[in-house]
Amino acid sequence: MSILRTIDLTKRFRGTVALDRLNLDVPEGSVFALIGANGAGKTTAIKILMNIHQATSGTAEALGVDSRKLSPREFQQIGYVSENQDLPEWMTVGYFLAYLKPFYPTWDDARADELLRQFELPRNRKLKHLSRGMKMKAALASSLAYRPKLIVLDEPFSGLDPLVRDEFIEGLIESASEATIFISSHDLSEIESFASHVGYLDRGKLRFSEEMTALSARFREIEVTLDRAPVLPGNWPATWLRPETSAAVVRFVESQFEEARTMAEVRKMFGEPRGVSITPMPLRSIFVTLAKAERRAA
Amino acid sequence: MNQALHIFKKDVRYLRWELAASLLLMGMFVYMNLRRVFFRDLDASIFSYFFLAFWAFLSARLIQAEPVPGDRQFWITRPYEWRSLLGAKLLFMVVCIGIPLLIADAVILGVDGFSVTSHAVALVWSVMLMTAGILIAFCAFATLTRGLTQWFLSAIVTVAVLYVMATIANEKIWAGVEWAREYGYLAILFAAAVVVLLRQYRRHKTAASIAVMAVGLLGSSLFVNYARSSWALDLEARFSKPKVDPSPIQIAVQPMPHSEQSRPPGRQQQVVLLAIPIRISGLQEGLDLISDEVRIDIENEGGGIWTQNTRQPSGANYLQHILDGYRLLLQVDRSAFDKANGRPVDLGMTVYLTTLRDSVSKVLRPGAAPVTIPGVGRCQNVIEEPGGWIVCESALQTPPDVLVVEFGGERLRRDRFLRATSYSPFPADAGSAIVPVIRTSHSWSRDFAAATLTSLEPVAHFRRDLKLSSIHLEDYQVVTR
Question: Which of A117, B99, B175, B272 is the most exposed place for a label (fewest CB within 10 A)?
């Protein structure tokens, strides 16, 4: 079952298409990472899903409800944290949590205390006197203390130092077992460690959306060593991205890797190579490969 | 309701310093009234502007604790019920401004010698008007802005535009029916504010709400500055319940014979004064008549029509008592008068009239204690160089009765004090919550004489349409040298 879903979701800002017929399904219980370059439309998609912005056309659903009709009942089950969220800065951390508590029937004081301890948040300090990282942690603590069914995070790691990121992610991972997490981020290396699904958004279009294991499995960096200086053949497969040559070596990224089929293709292209090296790729490299390929295609 | 109370408590905590300042201001307001330190008339109105400015600021701070426009505020993805949020803001305005103001007004009236219990309804009404008409409009305005800077700039522009409109229009007080203008203004503002608040909290449609607010502000300003008092007088004549039936009262104009003799030229003023002799019949013994307004239509032979409302400017009465009856005094623009250029014209007049009944007379000696004149208020013959002033005070409402003052037996013109009279059916004036004691100084006598004050109770409002055909305006001209 999808906990977040968009169907042909389109958003235009004065003629600029921010989202172009976006079809997205976020399965319940997943940790879904929405990745994409700046301006790809990640924040716009999230804001429509949270009923902060209105779509130009198409539909968006959260927790099975049309996002335009999200009511307090749904928001009692959603934890939303954004990098540029304005918090009531005059409140102390403790008062902020105490103020929010009556809004949530599922608020768990013990969990709130635990989060404050875990994030080392000083109860009596005003939010305006906290660093950016501490503010983000306070926002996250206030969004996890009621054990939401859905946690939506919009670029939560931007500008955070590595230590804070780790603490932030630790807090998230603890909640991952009981919630669906939807996260947009540039920080691919951090996401890779705990995302179960990934969607790639490029200029408002969803290029792919799949399980992390499947994605990792189908992307490989392949280096083919030949006896001669390579010449790239005209019938270069469309799934082989970012081809590079140097001396007697050809490098490319296979985006639909299946060992037997890929090796057969390599032999068909280059004959019997002197050597073939196949390396799994981190998410960051996959993302960069895709982004460059898209840019080239554009 | 629980959520509204929860948000309300948070707002009280958030704005505790501003609230302390507001209560301090209220305290000053009461103290200055009680001590009567330079705090009547002009000072009161200056203080009221200060009050309003502070409350506008307070409402902006209140609303912007949870700003409506924008996409970054924390509360929009929290389980806020829009009704609770709006309810919390309105509760704050009532509890933190309305109720302290009610108490302050009650203290001022009580210490000033007015009965608080007999003015209880008027007190609540006046604070309700202030809350509904002004404070809610402040809140609605604040929902359209993201922060204090934006709010401040928008407020400056709005005030400037409204001020320029008022200055250009330069509208005078509507004698007797000024209340209709004030209530009309508040009603338009209230309607716009309610629409804005509902749209903003329910739908977050700021662009559309800005348009509604602009229409409301401009509409109310246009109403105040350009509406005709004759509309209110028409409504008054049609819907007010007469205590004495005015239908037997007949008014007829008496044409003047045309004189070919050229009249001596008077001073070339912008306004030409015409005196139309009239005959009034059917007026019961003990009743008198006063005109609230005369509307004139002058139609020349070519069919050209020129219309003018001659409202009661301060002091002038268009229905004038003369030795052998009455005459209507009309002010006509010199340009219109010159257009007639000695040729015959038709003169149509719509006269809005009020029948008055003598009620109570009391004598006021200079320097003596104030005397209560029913229907007018508490009056005093105050010794203040260069003469003795008749000063009257009323609680929360412009007095319903017309006051006549006689010094040493010489009865002054009755119409002089119509501007200090209100035919309002409501228990309090629109601005009375911030100026609870309404003070009017009427007339003064150079020789510090005793004065006899008589209140005249309005008992019926009606209109009569009169026409003079083929007359020469110059035959009716009052030549001044």
Answer: A117
